[in-house]
## 1
Amino acid sequence: MQKPEPQPQPEKSLPEGVRHIVAVGAGKGGVGKSTVAVNLAVALAGAGLQAGLLDADVYGPNLPQMLGVQNHVPKLGDDGKIEPAEAHGVRLMSMGFLLEPDSPVIWRGPLLHGAMNQFLRDVRWGGLDVLVVDLPPGTGDVQLSVAQSVPLAGAVIVTTPQSIALSDVMKAAAMFRKLEVPIFGVVENMGDFVCPHCRKSSRVFAHGAGRSFAQKYGVPLLGEIPLDPAVCSAGEDGKPLCLAHPESASAKALRGLARAVAARLDAATAKRQGG
């Protein structure tokens, strides 16, 4: 039987006005991926970049609450573009703006693909230096749709310190490599526990999964973020940690992550202009 000829893939292009797109992913849920994505966007905005945030986790869209804009109602402009919310210097679009509270999203692949394309192409992002995309956990339809629709400058992978998390983060890394997305590096979240009273740190979990992954894959360890109760309370209050507790060890680690990502975007820009 003769094999069918491979079909040419449509050329990927950036959304209007967006210079770079960075994906934040994880092999499984519960590792603090959305917290990292929110604080990365806010820290990039604080460093002077025009930053946007796309909540691509359609099954658990928590970013509106984490940025304190859960009551935003998207409107259409005269050109048919959707107006994003804006908070803390970051423009945000999320499925959470379009759903009733506690309503589940029960969609198959084609519907997810259509939603991602609409959020990427039909939102008035304006002139953004970087759009941070908070992906769902795992390696499913949304990740594939985003990577096949737009050129991603790179991906940040979030893990926890335990060695048991390694198999999941390896799967996420393998997915990005198969999709030819550069891996900027890994972030180890929920490291040493920071006591909210005395501010001393102590080790709760085993550690080293992020460093082991970085060494195995030959990518940078972009940051080790302590386990700090302030991280959770800041997200629930709608004011990300980088703004609520800027001098905390976790906020400093997240700003370090932002500097590392910004440096890689500068390098990508220089390479593109040089080529």
## 2
Amino acid sequence: MNKENKYIDNIERLFGTDGIRGRVNGDKINASMAVKIAMAAGEYFFGKAGTKRPRVLIGKDTRLSGYMLEPALVAGFTSLGIDSITTGPLPTPGIAHLTNVLRCDLGVMISASHNPYQDNGLKFFNSDGFKLRDNVENQIQSLLKKGPSLSSPENLGRARRMEDAIGRYIEFIKSILQKNENLSGMKVVLDCANGAGYKVGPEVMFELGADVVPMSINPDGMNINMDCGAISPNKMAEMTKKTNATIGIALDGDADRVIFSDEKGNLIDGDQIIAVLADEMNKFQNLKKQSVVGTHMSNLALEKYLKINNIDLVRVKVGDRYILNEMLNNNFNLGGEPSGHVVLTDHSKTGDGLITAIKIISLLKKSGKKASEFLRPFKMIPFKIKNLKELDKNILKNKEIINKINKVQASIADKGRIVVRPSGTESLIRVMVESSSSKLIDDTINKITMLLQKSNESNKN
């Protein structure tokens, strides 16, 4: 048995909070694994759309490794008799949407989202265009260990390129506005992160009538998310102020989330965007069950603000798929994260940075106010997040560690809130502390950091 097969047999869980992600040519993300994962996913989804001929839609962002992974996936799927349709660079929500409307059995997005180009990943969608639930991912992983059931030679799948994917997605995005609505008179700085939205983003804004100042629209395979986009939005914010723009927008590498800047060049937290959308939807009685789905990272001030307006905040685990699962299970239609993932199920099947941006710009235009006034309906409770690298994330499964963290929380009572969690997309532990006292934030982060580092050292010994 070769080294890779041993890895497949011994792996605990291949999927993270948003598909499969890792270093290119590492254990998880390489050409050989891509073929095997395609075979396993293809076997699970074969025939799920109910059409005569099964097919898969494959999109990607602009990473160099996409040229390696795309044909590997095609090889895996076609070997099972599944036709493959590739789109080239297209935002993740575009793949989710088109998977459904093209009646594909599944969709795959090749992207590591906000990570640097050295990483890549695979995000899967079912035939309805929704991200997979944990139990489906587990079954795919079981099939990966079992090995594929290959097609006979005459039943091999075919592959083709979809030439009008961008146009189809643009028309879908534009349809969220009423026919008499447009973005004329709005000057928009749009940072596309040299990623999947570099073509569709500026084009859709232009077609809707906005005056667009594009940034980071020259991908070279290695500059995705590099000092730009939602992961580094300060240049976008500076450009917004410099050009006297109405608003600034920064997408991440696969354009499923968005960060905003006001006209003064000040960044706007994602929780503020959630509040603006909740207010608008509630005003017109479009907010189902008067509830919003957030995560454990959602600011406490958002929860208090919503409560004053008779809106409930339902918290779930971090990750837009957990938000979406809660929304689908309980018929909610608005959810999101501080990081800029916003899910509007009346329009999209996953977080969509461009749909969120267009919705917000449209509301801003109607308000007649400046972004600095309109997009800050409440005052945020200050917080800090510290990322702890080179720690074994499994220490957070230790009951003793959990009890110690709970004791620290009890010691600060209602003066602050602590969230400690393993990252689902990177090899690190995140520590967040909220409080109106900056000293309490720093002291608490230091306590939690020392506690985790000490436990990590003990485990090594």
## 3
Amino acid sequence: MSLSKYCLNNRLRMTAVALIASLTLGTLTAFSQGSARLAADAPDEYVVQVGDTLWDIAATFLQDPWYWPEIWYVNPQVENPHLIYPGDVLALVYVDGAPRVTVGQAGSYRLSPEARATPLTEAITSVSYDSISAFLSRGVVIERSEVDSLPYIVSTKGDHLIAAAGNTVYVRGTSAQPGERFNVVHIGDKLVDPENNDLIGYQGIEIGEGTMRRSGDPASMALISSKQEATDGDRLIPASVEIPLNFFPKAPSSNINGQIIAVVGGVTQIAQYQVVVLNRGSTHGLGVGDVLTAWRRGDTVRDRVAGGSVLLPDEMAGTLMVFKVYDRISYGLVMEATQAIHTLDYVRNPT
């Protein structure tokens, strides 16, 4: 692996004032002092294990993991200071009476440089990619503005009306070169914003996967796998979906009050580690890593004593973290579920 793919990490033991790192994904929001509450059983030291996620580690030290940026103690002179690796020893220390978590060697947190070359790919991620990819493989969400720009199947070689693995299809709207891979997606149900009935996207149903054989207009693509038959008009999406996973869980910088409009996989009741779609995106101030509380909508019940009906209060149902953001919609992973969550339930800033 080339040197550019490695992080020469000078781990310094901090004795200066704690700073919040400026991440490649954006500058972290400042938090008020004292809002982070330590977990009752927060350890003095924790050795990072293979398979850990930043959410798990934050929950080890904090009652509310989304306050991690407030206590993470970094040195801005270190390249990628927010990255944590298996084998790192995380220590709970106090700076001016405030709790901080820093990286060091067991029992020693003095200023002492340590050079180490570590592959960036070995850094722990905020959430498990497996928990995300398992649901994304079942379908995608396509923004309304994106649909018309996607390449599409115009015909199937051999006068077939439908195509499956082993067939060749002709596609338009792409300059892809031979060897590039695409997912074939059927445009499914509309996604409508429940607040104003605006069409904001579509459910994408994954049909299969193909490899470009010949460029041009039309180009030709061989279907190498299929879950169901592909037909004319089905769209192409690059097979690799870029999902940044090295980010800090944090509270949103804006006031978010949205709803769950879909769940990837088509289930009706949403549980832990399932992926949901929200009617909020970057135009509403939502960003990658933002943590939201899910609220179950209160039911309307009949009052058998006083007569009429009464709306029951909304109930807190769980916590989710946003990992992919578009203009008007976003993906969130349910981190905790205290009760069943449903589509049209609310999402709000954590309390």
